[in-house]
Specification:
Layout (H helix, E strand, L loop, with lengths): L9 H23 L7 H26 L7 H14 L1 H4 L15 H6 L16
This protein binds zinc ion.
Zinc ion binds next to loops.
């Protein structure tokens, strides 16, 4: 009889822990709602990441349920990477430096403001 310890497999680790990442991404998405006027693209980006994480978790749960090999995750992860690369303008609107003056952006500007400009170049939203 072959006994496979699934608790150490990649799919088991993903299915056990990925919901924490999904909840964190959705919590960030809810916080971004506070800056709704300024962060439509970045809110959608966090939502897309939550959807991809959910797809990864669903596939890892299916692998465990049907007792399949973890190698199935490889083309899925590759596919998700290709999707992120091809739609990188939608998935990765976050910039670390100001578009206009190249000054380092504060965390609030990186996460919540679509303009990717510093407080001096784009004074909108400074009241919050
Ligand atoms: Zn600037």
């Amino acid at each position: 009889m072959e006994t496979i310890c699934k608790s150490n497999s990649l799919s088991a680790v993903l299915s056990d822990n990925l919901y924490i990442l999904i909840l964190a991404i959705l919590l960030l998405n809810l916080i971004q709602r506070r800056y709704q006027k300024y962060s439509q693209k970045k809110r959608m980006a966090t939502l897309y990441f939550a959807i991809l994480s959910l797809a990864l978790m669903a596939v890892s749960l299916l692998i465990i349920h049907f007792n399949l090999s973890d190698l199935i995750l490889a083309p899925l992860i590759l596919g998700l990477g290709i999707i992120i690369y091809l739609a990188r303008n939608r998935f990765l609107p976050f910039r670390l430096h100001c578009r206009k003056c190249s000054k380092r952006l504060p965390f609030k500007r990186i996460i919540f403001f679509d303009s990717n400009c510093c407080d001096d170049c784009d004074p909108r939203g400074n009241d919050k």
